[in-house]
Amino acid sequence: xxxxxxxxxxxxxxxxxxxxxxxxxxxxxxxxxxxxxxxxxxxxxxxxxxxxxxxxxxxxxxxxxxxxxxxxxxxxxxxxxxxxxxxxxxxxxxxxxxxxxxxxxxxxxxxxxxxxxxxxxxxxxxxxxxxxxxxxxxxxxxxxxxxxxxxxxxxxxxxxxxxxxxxxxxxxxxxxxxxxxxxxxxxxxxxxxxxxxxxxxxxxxxxxxxxxxxxxxxxxxxxxxxxxxxxxxxxxxxxxxxxxxxxxxxxxxxxxxxxxxxxxxxxxxxxxxxxxxxxxxxxxxxxxxx
Length: 290
Fold this sequence. Notes:
Elements: H1 2-18, H2 20-35, H3 39-61, E1 66-67, E2 69-70, E3 77-82, E4 93-97, E5 103-107, H4 114-129, E6 133-134, E7 138-141, E8 144-149, H5 162-179, E9 187-193, H6 201-217, E10 221-226, H7 230-233, E11 241-245, E12 248-249, E13 257-258, E14 263-264, H8 272-278, H9 283-288
Parallel strand pairs: 2-7, 5-10, 5-11, 8-9, 9-10
Antiparallel strand pairs: 1-6, 3-4, 3-7, 11-14, 12-13
C-alpha cells in the first residue's frame, strides 16, 4: 500500500510539471490522423500472412499430399486415392462427382464409410480452392461452392425439430443453386448425408427425389449418402444418378469388419440386425426377457 501511494503521488507531480498524459494523447491523435486509415490494411496483410503460413505448414506436414488443379473448363470433380484430411490412417478411394446436373448416390450399410466419404470430398474441395494440398494422389475440379447438409440438430430454444432444421438447410442449398444456375464461373457442389431421416420412409423417398430434382435442374452437382436403395431404381433419377457403395464382411467366427473400399453399383448387403446382435439386442436377448 505504501508503494502504491508513493507511486500515485509521483504520478500526480509528473502530470502537474510536464503534462505527460496530455502529450501522449496528443501524440496518439496525431498518429491516428496520419495512419488510422491504413490499420485495416495492416491487419488484412497480417491475416493473409498467417493463412499462407498455415497452408505452408500443411504442405510441410503432409509431403505426400498433392495440390489440386482448379480448371474452369472441367466438367466434373475427379480425384484418385482420396482420404479424409483429419484421419491419420485412412483407406483411400477414387471419386468422381459430376458433371453439372448429375449426382453421386452413395449407398451402404451402417458404419461402412458413407458419411466419411462425403466429408472427405467436401473438406478436400475447400482445401484445393484455398490453395492448399489435398489428401489425394490427384485432384481436378471446376470452381465450385460447397454446400452441405450434415449432422443437422434440433433447437429447443427456437422450437425447431431436427426434421424442420434440415428442411430449412435444404431450402438454403436449393436457393443457392438457383442463384448459381446461370453462373458460368462456378457451380454448386452439394453434399447431403442421410438426408431427411426424420420422417417415414414413403414420404422421405418422395421428398428426397424432389430436393434432388430441384438441385440437378439448377445444374448443381453433388453426392448423397442414403440407406434408401429404391432411389437408385427410380426412373426419374436414373439418367442423372451414378451409384457407388460400401460393404461389410461377416467372418465365420462372428463379428463384423469393414474394408471401406468404394465399389460401383448399389449396396448388396445390410448389417442392422447383425449390429443389434453385437450389442446384445438380438433374438437371444428378446427371448431371455420373456
